[in-house]
Specification:
- It is a single chain.
- By secondary structure, the protein is an alpha+beta fold.
- The chain has one domain.
- It is built from 3 helices and 3 strands, in the order αββαβα.
- The protein has a 3-stranded antiparallel β-sheet with strand order 1-2-3, with no helix packed on it.
- The longest helix is centred in the C-terminal third of the chain and has 7 residues.
Amino acid sequence: MNDIWSSRTIQKLKGPDKKPFLQRPTGEARFLFGLAVDGYNPFHNKTAKQVVTSTGFWIILYNLPPHLRYLLENMCYIGSAPGPTGPTIGRLNSFI
């Protein structure tokens, strides 16, 4: 698999009418969005060996071609979970 569109899971998505979601009727648009989560050290404290992590959240539109979808101008930054450590699953779920 070289792209999310090759995924069986994506191809099997059903709409409320139980028909394949991505097979859209003429004149209708169907969009596939994804949530990207990444932790980063905002202070770059590598030499002091202090590890501080903030976590950023972005929305990605998978309908864009792969070479465009991950450009900063094509992603929507929706927020951060502050450190000093990454969020636990419980904190992450409540943030989302």
